[in-house]
Each structure stands twice: as C-alpha cells, then as structure tokens.
C-alpha cells in the first residue's frame, strides 16, 4: 500500500508577475517540494506569462497564475472564493504588491495612492484571507516592507539613505509595518504568524531598475526563509538578511 501523499503548502504572492514577487515564486518553486504557488497578478495575461516562465520545479510543486487586484475589494473577494473552492485553505500569504511613487499627481494624491496601495491594501487582503488562513495547520502572513519604513533608521544619520526624499513611500511602508504589528497581535490566538521582511535595495520596476541596486534574486532570500518557517516560528518580527531591523 502506497503512503498517503502530504497536502501541498498553498502560498499566495501578490504582485508576483515581476520583480521581487516573481523572484520569491521562482525560488520557492525550485527549492521547496510539495508547494502550490499562486502567482498573483492584476493583469491575467502577465500572470500567465510569468507563471509559464517558472519551469524549474521541485518535486510535487506547482505554480498557478491567479488574478488579484489589491486595489479592488471585489477582485480580492473573488480570489478568496477561488482559493477556497480549489484548496479550502491558505497556508501562506505574502503581501508583496507595491508602488513607489505616482507621477503627475499632487502631493496629497501621491501620498494617498501610495499609502492605499502599499498599506491599506495589504490590510484588506490579509483580513479577507484570514478565515482561510485559520484553516491552515501552520498559517503565516509575510509583508514585503522596506528599511525606509523604519522610524529608527529614518532618524539615524549613520544610515546610508538618511535624508532620502521619498515621503509617500516611507510613510506607506511605516504604515504597512503597523498593519503587520496589529495583525500579529490580533491573530496570535489563531496561531497565525505575521512578520515583515526587508529585501534590501534591489533592481526592480519600483526604482526604475536602478544601476545602484542589487540583484532582485537576493531580495527573495529572506522572504522565502520566513515563508517556509513552521508553526513554531516567531511572529511580530522585522527582519532582513542581516538580521533584525529597528521598527
């Protein structure tokens, strides 16, 4: 009699058709056996194209394009319904989708749109998926944040990016960090681990593929480490490759 196959670990990554989200999907797919990765994308065709590029798969691991527009409650709810119908639960949610700035807008519009995308939407997605996360044996939420959202680093003249003029992005990531902290406390009783990770300054569309930035593949390492933690892993932590970050 053959042994019963263990269920796949179901992971949803928002904004995964490019950049850091795509790198996380690739790394998980290549290194983690028995995973099913939902590659979230606002544009269905871009999601399908990205998913089809990931061909190096570990044993019993699969990748599926999934439509989700984090700025649309209706889209988020449709995605929840699809995940529930197909899998009955969600094991890991990576809130990765983000923007850096909004061109040709007023200061007020830019601040509101960046904060809505990076922080408010991460909260909405987490709340909508919470019932499915509660059905997992080892549920985890990971927020892809930035050291630029750290109050401690912002006020430290010794830091490399001290004084960098990116107020909307900084505020949005500080707000995202608070969302994670609030959710970590709220869902502790349900066993849901909520953590934030900083990928470092990586070459992506977010920064116009800056030549000063590092390899985006390296930016996926810490997120993947936290994603694959078991149920005994920590919660309420802010980490990067170098260790803990100041909140």
UniProtKB/TrEMBL annotation:
GO annotation (BP), single: secondary metabolic process
GO cellular component: cytoplasm
InterPro entries per the UniProt record, alphabetical: Fungal_SecMetab_SDRs (IPR051468), NAD(P)-bd_dom_sf (IPR036291), SDR_fam (IPR002347)
Signal sequence segment: none
A Gene Ontology molecular function term of the record: oxidoreductase activity
Pfam families documented for this protein: adh_short
Protein family (similarity comment): Belongs to the short-chain dehydrogenases/reductases (SDR) family.
PANTHER family: CHAIN DEHYDROGENASE, PUTATIVE (AFU_ORTHOLOGUE AFUA_5G01530)-RELATED, SHORT-CHAIN DEHYDROGENASE/REDUCTASE
Name listed for the protein in its UniProt record: Short chain dehydrogenase
Organism: Coniosporium apollinis (strain CBS 100218)
Upper classification of the organism: Eukaryota, Fungi, Dikarya, Ascomycota, Pezizomycotina
């Amino acid at each position: 009699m053959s042994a019963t196959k263990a269920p796949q670990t179901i992971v949803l990554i928002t904004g995964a058709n490019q950049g850091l989200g795509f790198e996380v999907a690739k790394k998980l797919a290549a290194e983690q056996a028995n995973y099913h990765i939902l590659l979230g994308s606002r544009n269905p065709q871009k999601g399908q194209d990205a998913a089809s590029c990931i061909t190096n798969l570990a044993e019993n691991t699969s990748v599926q394009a999934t439509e989700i527009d984090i700025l649309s409650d209706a889209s988020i709810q449709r995605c929840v319904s699809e995940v529930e119908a197909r899998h009955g639960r969600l094991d890991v949610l990576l809130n990765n989708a983000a923007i850096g700035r909004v061109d040709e807008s007023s200061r007020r519009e830019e601040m509101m749109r960046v904060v809505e995308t990076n922080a408010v939407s991460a909260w909405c997605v987490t709340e909508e998926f919470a019932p499915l996360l509660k059905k997992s044996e080892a549920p985890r939420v990971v927020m892809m944040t930035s050291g630029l959202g750290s109050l401690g680093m912002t006020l430290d003249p010794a830091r490399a990016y001290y004084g960098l003029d990116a107020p909307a992005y900084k505020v949005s990531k500080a707000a995202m960090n608070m969302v994670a902290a609030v959710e970590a406390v709220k869902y502790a009783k349900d066993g849901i681990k909520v953590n934030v990770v900083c990928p470092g300054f990586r070459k992506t569309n977010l920064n116009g593929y800056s030549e000063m930035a590092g390899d985006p593949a390296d930016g996926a390492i810490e997120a993947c480490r936290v994603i694959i933690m078991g149920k005994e892993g920590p919660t309420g932590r802010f980490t990067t490759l170098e260790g803990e970050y100041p909140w």
